[in-house]
Design a protein that fits this description.
two-stranded antiparallel ribbon; 2 strands
Length: 175
Amino acid sequence: MFQWSKKVVKSVTFNPGVADESLLTLVESHLEKEPEKTFSDLCKEALWQSLCVPESVRPSPQSPPPSTKLPAAGGLEPQIADLQSQLTDLEERFFAKTSHRLEMMERYLMQLSQQVAQLGMMVNKLQVIQTSTQSPPVVEVLNNTHTNTTTTSAVTPPQEVDPLISRLSQYLDDF
């Protein structure tokens, strides 16, 4: 196996073809966007990815010098303003969504309260009707003249007829 010295310099040749020229243009634009990286760093990253080496095995990237870590003060203020604007927009959307959900829940609670009140009234009506129909039965003794036997039957008092049912029964009879 070939042993390299501590520092090995390899060169990359870009030929005067469309593919190589466009690749060189992309490399230059990428390096302009990230001035802390060198062409050597870019080549190494591409080789690591091309050779499918897991990231756990790759060496950790060296941190750039302190002077290039933070943008200049003039470039930092617009970024801060942009972040504040984004945060404000996010908060507004969050609160609008939350308030909409709260309104929906309040509406549902109101509907449920009304339904519970209606059910309570219906239960009360049923209790009143049941208590009025549960009066003690009247026992009536009948004499049958042909068989001379006595029969007993329970007579219930007439039940109250709901006016709505009586009105609807007229339409039902017509139908």
